[in-house]
Amino acid sequence: MTLYIDPPTWPGHGRMWSHLVSDVSYEELHAFAASIGCPPRAFERDHYDVPSHRYADAVAAGAVEVGSKELVRRITEAGLRRPKYRARTNPPGDDA
Asked: How far is the CA of 56 from the CAs of 6, 31, 85, 86, in angstroms?
């Protein structure tokens, strides 16, 4: 069981945020997030948004601190990355 968290460097809604991910499964991610008090609404596609004041709680519970690029690399390699926007591989109108 390995969960990863990046530093709280992402601004939004008047505070700074981290991203919490699993490189094993979404089930593991949801269970861990619930155990540290993250509400279900904090889940976005493939990660939980964690406010800076909860960062230490996640690390104390066992999340591994990594940089943002490393976090994305790990979930991509695990096949758990769900990008916000996907580039089309076929031109519009070509359903082949």
From this structure: 11, 18, 31, 33
Q: What is the pLDDT along the chain (96 residues), one digit of tens a residue?
A: 689 999 999 899 999 999 999 999 999 999 999 999 999 999 998 899 999 999 999 999 999 999 999 999 999 988 788 877 655 555 555 554
Number of domains in the chain: 1
Whether residue 95 lies inside any domain: the answer is no
Instruction: Give the number of other Cβ atoms within 10 Å of residue 59's Cβ.
Output: 15
Q: Which domain holds residue 16?
A: 3-77
pTM above 0.90, yes or no: no
